[in-house]
């Protein structure tokens, strides 16, 4: 690996990557915590169905926000590759591929949310509609965590790229590595030890902190000194 030399083009790409990352954070957290989360109780199918049918616009807006997040994620994967490829081409390409896999999985997984809506909105004469919709919503949660497995690997790779590129402080790279390990652990618990999953949830605060810090660092990337006139 070689240290990167900051150029005007590299600085512009970094700032654009930071902007995409900011949209991803806002759209992703907004969809999951602000819009969809208050409507869903996986322990109560009837209450969940009633909440979604009472706020169809809110439920659909959550899907739209996730779609925006996925579109920006695809762009971010390419931009981060362009920023860091000179430091380690193979690792940068691998990181991009893993992030794009995560993006495809999360985008495709939105069909589980759409399926839940179709079941609930066309439930006349359909037996166990509420229970079926809840299964689709639970499937979406598992599909999201499956995407985070690949994102966890991407985060570890990005952390190594940041650490060894010399472009920004190593502390941001360390934060991304830790965030990646949290994602991998959390997704593993969701699939293989679900009884521990809820207790692990507070650890995701580390991922929000690490990714937000990296996002802001990219967004505030300055132009090279030689351009200042």
What is this structure, in a nutshell?
The protein has 229 residues and is mostly helical. It is 79% helix and 0% strand.
Account of the protein in words:
It holds the Pfam family DUF4386. Keywords: Membrane, Transmembrane, Transmembrane helix. By secondary structure, the chain is mainly alpha-helical. It has one domain. Helices cover 79% and strands 0% of the residues. Helix 1 packs antiparallel against helix 3, helix 4 packs antiparallel against helix 6 and helix 6 runs antiparallel to helix 7. The protein starts with 7 loop residues before the first helix and ends in a 10-residue tail after the last helix. The mean pLDDT is 92.
Keyword list:
229 residues, mainly alpha, 9 helices, 0% strand, DUF4386, transmembrane helix
Helix-strand blueprint:
Elements: H1 8-36, H2 45-54, H3 56-84, H4 89-108, H5 110-121, H6 129-165, H7 170-192, H8 197-200, H9 204-219
Helix pairs in contact: 1-3, 1-9, 2-6, 3-4, 3-5, 4-6, 5-6, 6-7, 7-9
Overall pLDDT metric:
92
Regarding quaternary structure, what we see is single chain
H/E topology pattern: HHHHHHHHH
Strand content: under 5%
Head-to-tail CA distance between termini: 32 Å
Organism: Maricaulis salignorans
Protein name: DUF4386 domain-containing protein
Transmembrane segments: 16-35, 61-84, 96-120, 146-164, 171-193, 199-220
Keywords: Membrane, Transmembrane, Transmembrane helix
């Amino acid at each position: 690996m070689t240290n990167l030399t900051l150029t005007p083009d590299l600085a512009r790409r970094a700032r654009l990557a930071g902007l995409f990352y900011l949209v991803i954070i806002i759209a992703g957290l907004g969809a999951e915590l602000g819009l969809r989360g208050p409507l869903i109780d996986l322990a109560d199918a009837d209450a969940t169905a009633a909440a979604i049918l009472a706020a169809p616009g809110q439920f659909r807006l959550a899907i739209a926000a996730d779609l925006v997040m996925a579109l920006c994620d695809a762009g971010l994967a390419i931009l981060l590759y362009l920023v860091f490829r000179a430091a380690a081409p193979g690792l940068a390409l691998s990181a991009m591929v893993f992030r794009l896999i995560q993006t495809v999985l999360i985008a495709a997984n939105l069909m589980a949310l759409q399926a839940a809506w179709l079941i609930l909105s066309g439930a006349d004469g359909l037996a166990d509609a509420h229970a079926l919709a809840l299964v689709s919503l639970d499937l979406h949660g598992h599909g999201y965590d499956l995407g985070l497995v690949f994102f966890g690997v991407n985060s570890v790779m990005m952390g190594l790229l940041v650490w060894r590129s010399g472009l920004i402080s190593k502390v941001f790279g360390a934060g991304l590595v830790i965030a990646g390990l949290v994602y991998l652990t959390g997704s593993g618990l969701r699939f293989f030890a679900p009884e521990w999953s809820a207790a692990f949830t507070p650890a995701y605060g580390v991922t929000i902190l690490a990714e937000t810090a990296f996002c802001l660092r990219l967004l505030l990337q300055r132009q090279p000194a030689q351009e200042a006139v």
